[in-house]
Specification:
Helix content: 40-55%
Structural class: alpha/beta
Oligomer: single chain
Strand content: 15-25%
CATH architecture of the largest domain: Alpha-Beta Complex
Distance between the termini: 48 Å
CATH topology of the largest domain: Spore Coat Polysaccharide Biosynthesis Protein SpsA, Chain A
Pfam families: Glycos_transf_2
Radius of gyration: 28 Å
CATH class of the largest domain: Alpha Beta
Protein name: Glycosyltransferase 2-like domain-containing protein
């Protein structure tokens, strides 16, 4: 199926590149991405043109998002169309799932799940859809009238469905997407749920207002009223007004209730009239009069033709240059003894086009003097007050200039060819691959060195919500800079495991891949805390972080069936580790049993929990070793709680 993606933009430089990449790098790529510029005065045009094919830029001089979308449609050649806002995003498989739902349907509209995308602190986080819940007795139109909806980033239109709806109405300045969908539903276009895919509907940060954020303004209330009156008229013309009287009355009532006391009286009065017309407030429906009025306010739609496309100039995008700069972010805190080895392993890479950002998180040892002795123009020293490893990595992200970003902890090291092999693999990979990690050589206190080989690649979100598939992998990881732009920084409010949270957020939008060779040297001996009290504190921080991980990702984990596995893993840690809390472990096992009563594993571990600590630990360790490779089992201890 040939898919065209239309992106209207007006001064959207902050997020436009993210939206374009999100569409371009789909597992089923669109044949074209049409950026319809609505008179931008910022860098939006330059950003769009820098991509080259399949991105085309057209001018849409008539003001308004609906007019820009209509202009984009007039230029589109695809059998199916998505109208993607310039600040929204798609999961990598979204177009493929929507196309599967639409295939062979004729005039139909496919929809997928959607999530809100909000900036919280330094992090962009996905949350549940922020619309009213759908009532089981409502059909699609009744649900849409009463506040349930799908934003444009979760909809794929067949060309026939779009034309049946009458196209975008350029005179509708707000709620134009709801207007188009409801007209399609009135025209009998079916809404087909897709089996997968997710659209991410961004809520702009404080101080920036999107069109949807104006819904309760005087202008927004008037626009919503106009759309509602239009839909009511179409239902009257179709003789279907009786079926939707109650949803219409509820929709009018909501507008009337949201009008402020000092707001536009004509809007409030018209909304109250709408409630009465449809049987609300105990009024008598005046259907005969309304049928007569319908002819006087009938509406016919139609997409306005757009101007000719402006060919995108042959500008090479940054991702196409031969030798991309790699920014290496190395946070450190009081690790002068191991820092030199880490730095030398970076500056000694066979791939030389790099910058090394050593972020000193308030060290009180010889770290500053050590760095001062190193004379390499590629090294930048960034000291800060002690704020933790997440804040240190975030400072590195803010200061980085590379298109590829690699992370290294200050007690680990790299093999000399690590970056060269990762850069080559990243350059050969499609843009939807946003993270690449390597195998590990794990050294232990007793001198043993074990090799860990990665296994998870592709769409890893279901797996990473169950466990950190990268294990010790922070020091082995390379990401695209645009992935960091999409998800923001590490969450500095988490007590531990901020890397696991970060990888999970990236996995929503990008595929993962790996280089199996052990190119990263992980020093497990140097990371193991010595004092028992310290171990207990770290365990408590890890478990608290795991609880927070469930809170932050629980809605998604439940969708992909990962909640049970995560609860079982947390319970096992409590029962197996000396620092664990048996009662807390049992509570988690009971939750897991309630979630999946037919699975025997929670009951086996509940029985184990009744044993004394010695036999319980031995049996638990035996069970773990039967299902987990040695290096991976070590990794479950959580390296992120130790200093960077």
């Amino acid at each position: 199926m040939r898919i065209s993606v239309v992106i209207p933009v007006l001064d959207g430089q902050s997020f436009l590149a993210q939206a374009i990449r999100s569409a371009r790098d789909q597992s089923l790529p669109p044949v074209e991405i049409i950026v319809a510029d609505n008179g931008s005065r910022d860098a939006s045009l330059a950003i769009a043109r820098s991509f080259g094919p399949p991105v085309r830029v057209i001018s849409a001089p008539r003001p308004g998002a609906a007019a820009a979308r209509a202009a984009g449609y007039a230029e589109a050649t695809g059998e199916a169309l998505m109208f993607l806002d310039a600040d929204d995003l798609l999961a990598p498989d979204t177009l493929a799932h929507l196309a599967d739902a639409l295939r062979g349907r004729g005039a139909a509209l496919a929809c997928c799940s959607w999530r809100r995308y909000d900036l919280k602190g330094d992090c962009w986080r996905a949350g549940p859809a922020s619309c009213a819940p759908r009532r089981p007795y409502h059909d699609d139109l009744a649900a849409w009238l009463t506040g349930w909806y799908h934003p444009p980033c979760s909809l794929l239109w067949s060309r026939e469905a779009y034309e049946a709806a009458g196209g975008w109405d350029p005179t509708t300045s707000l709620n134009d997407d709801g207007d188009l969908v409801m007209r399609a539903l009135v025209a009998g276009v079916p809404l087909i749920p897709a089996a997968g895919g997710i659209g991410y509907y961004r809520r702009l940060p404080a101080g920036a207002q999107s069109l949807s954020g104006q819904n309760r303004s005087a202008r927004g209330l008037a626009a919503r009223l106009r759309v509602l009156e239009k839909i009511e008229t179409l239902l009257l013309q179709a003789g279907r007004e009786g079926r939707y009287a109650s949803p219409l009355a509820e929709a009018y009532r909501q507008i009337a209730d949201e009008c402020p006391i000092d707001g536009p009286e004509e809007v409030r009065d018209s909304a109250r009239d709408g409630v009465s017309r449809n049987g609300g407030f105990g009024g008598v429906r005046r259907a005969a009069r309304r049928l007569g009025e319908a002819a006087g306010r009938s509406w016919t739609g139609g997409a306005s033709p757009g101007p000719n496309a402006i060919p995108a100039p042959g500008v090479r995008s940054a991702a196409e240059t031969d030798s991309p700069l790699v920014s290496v972010i190395l946070p450190t805190y009081n690790r002068a003894a191991t820092l030199r080895r880490a730095i030398d392993s970076v500056l000694g890479q066979s791939y030389a086009n790099l910058e090394l950002l050593v972020v000193d998180d308030g060290s009180t040892d010889d770290t500053p003097r050590l760095v001062e002795t190193l004379c390499d123009p590629r090294l930048r020293y960034l000291p800060q007050e002690n704020r933790g490893v997440a804040a240190a990595r975030n400072l590195g992200l803010e200061q980085s200039r590379g298109r590829l970003i690699a992370f290294l902890d200050s007690d680990d090291a790299w093999m000399p060819e690590k970056l060269a092999r990762q850069v080559a693999q990243m350059q050969a990979a499609p843009g939807r691959v946003g993270l690449l990690y390597t195998g590990l050589a794990v050294s232990h206190e007793d001198g043993r060195v074990e090799t860990w080989t990665p296994k998870a690649r592709g769409h890893v979100l279901p797996e990473i919500l169950k466990s950190n598939v990268l294990h010790f992998g922070t020091s082995s990881t390379m990401i695209r800079a645009e992935a960091a732009e999409v998800v923001g920084g590490f969450d500095s409010t988490l007590p531990a495991n901020e890397d696991h949270d970060y990888w999970a957020r990236i996995a929503r939008f990008y595929e993962f891949d790996f280089e199996p060779a052990p190119l990263t040297l992980y020093d497990h001996a140097g990371s193991t805390p010595g004092a028992e009290a310290r171990r207990s504190v770290q365990f408590a921080r890890n478990m608290r972080a795991r609880d927070l991980f469930v809170e932050l990702h629980g809605f998604e984990a439940g969708r992909v069936g990962a909640t049970f596995a995560y609860q079982m893993d947390s319970a096992r840690r409590h029962l197996e580790w000396d620092e664990g809390n048996v009662r807390a472990g049992r509570r988690l096992l009971l939750k897991a049993a309630r979630a999946a009563p037919a699975k025997p594993l929670p009951y086996v571990w509940l029985a184990l929990s009744l044993l004394p600590s010695g036999p319980r630990g031995s049996l638990a360790g035996f069970l773990r070793r039967q299902r987990t490779p040695p290096a991976a089992a070590e990794a479950e201890g959580g390296s992120t709680v130790s200093p960077p």
